Amino acid sequence: PIKACLFDLDGVLVDTAKYHYLAWERLAEELGFVFTPEDNERLKGVSRMASLDILLEVGGLELDDATKSALADKKNRWYVEYISHMDEQEILPGALAFLRELRENGILIALGSASKNAMTILNNTGLVPYFDAIIDGTKTASAKPDPEVFLLGARELGAQPQECVVFEDAEAGIEAAKRAGMRSIGIGSPKVLGAADAVVPSLQDMTTVRLLELVSH
Ligand code: B16
Ligand code: MG
């Protein structure tokens, strides 16, 4: 039986990757190098400091911890300004209908995001009331692929890992679900998310019945 669904935020319910990119690219420009949309793919699902390390690697820069922390803060201030303009229009296609349907069918819903800005995004898009538990980057010590974020979500919902299904767009997130002992559905390309139990292009047309079909084999 499926008791709970755990959702990643960026790339599954909303597309904040474009705002992360705008901010990282702006930082790279200030530092004097180009950061491309392809480079940005490597940042999906990765924590803020780990993202900065990847960015600096692309730019061939080695900086001390204090400088890095100041750069991460600067990037975050820009990012927070970008997401302050978000509204419900930015919820990805199919997401709202699916969340409503899960609720009607008595399936519990949790957020499992690496972002420390998740509450701002949920508030601006009106998504808060759909969640029975919200676990984000302010509540976790270890980033995905560590299973912590999903295990905390299951615990708060009172669900066992084998009763949970994770929806994720990042490879590290699918690995985190596996390590948590949960089933997972990848949102995106099977090439990247092949380790998931099933992969779909988006939440468009996702239903509880379809979910059961996808994870029961
Ligand atoms: P912040 P998710 C992740 O969100 C993003 O995919 C990733 O690109 C970002 O670096 C990370 O959150 C941290 O975000 O800087 O806001 O704390 O996919 O786990 O919902
Ligand atoms: Mg994601």
From TrEMBL:
UniProtKB keywords: Isomerase
EC number: 5.4.2.6
Entry keyword annotation includes Isomerase: yes
Molecular function, one GO term: beta-phosphoglucomutase activity
Superkingdom: Bacteria
A Pfam cross-reference name: Hydrolase
Similarity comment: family membership: Belongs to the HAD-like hydrolase superfamily. CbbY/CbbZ/Gph/YieH family.
Protein's name according to its UniProt entry: Beta-phosphoglucomutase
Organism expressing this protein natively: Paenibacillus favisporus
